[in-house]
Amino acid sequence: MARETVLIVEDEEEIQELLQYNLSKDGFRGVGVLSGEDAIKKARAEHYDCILLDLMLPGMDGLDVCRALKKDEKTRNIPIIMLTAKGEEPDIVTGLELGADDYIVKPFSPKVLIARIKTVLRRKSAEPVDESAPLQVHGMQIHPGRREVLFKNKPIELTNMEFQLLHFLAGRPGWVFSRYQIVEGVRGDNYPVTDRSVDVMIVGLRKKLGDAGSLIETVRGAGYRFKE
Fold this sequence. Notes:
This protein has 8 helices and 11 strands. With 228 residues, it is of the alpha/beta class. It folds into 2 domains: 5-125, Rossmann fold (3-Layer(aba) Sandwich); 135-226, Winged helix-like DNA-binding domain superfamily/Winged helix DNA-binding domain (Arc Repressor Mutant, subunit A, Orthogonal Bundle). Helix 1 (13-25) links the parallel strand 1 and strand 2 (29-33). The mean pLDDT is 85.
């Protein structure tokens, strides 16, 4: 059985080797390159299921690599997870707007990284969500056309933003979304992104949902998900 292949774009060889080791332990094949230019050549010439992309690269930086890959028809559908340092929030936002699928901040747990890779691969292979279809999950009914939410047949009054947030998460139970992905999914790319705005929305939504609020789970260090 063919193993899924991950392209590791990381200029520090020790980190690259560590990533390859942890990927191989979990059944993946890791291929490493040290520069953005080599990453683009590799991605265009060979098949990769996912790309781990360090933003701080010599020469061509990670954002330029992401931009080039997402503009190329051959490579634009490859999921990209950005490897970032603390304090790089503006670059993270730019990367997500360019089409990157997720990010993880160094230093990170290998287990968390593997989980993120598996998540983006599941998203890639999953059928598209019909955003207009009513949802029924965990005793909750969500009707997009009527902007109506019922829990155990009792109506729950939500603002438009709260409804969009609930529908976005509930339509993909079990999937973990970062705060930036949530804002992008709910409001689009032009909404000013901050961690705080998403956290405040989640708190308000949970409060209005009452007993059903526990269906929205916090995933420490990653974001939020709707209970699977």
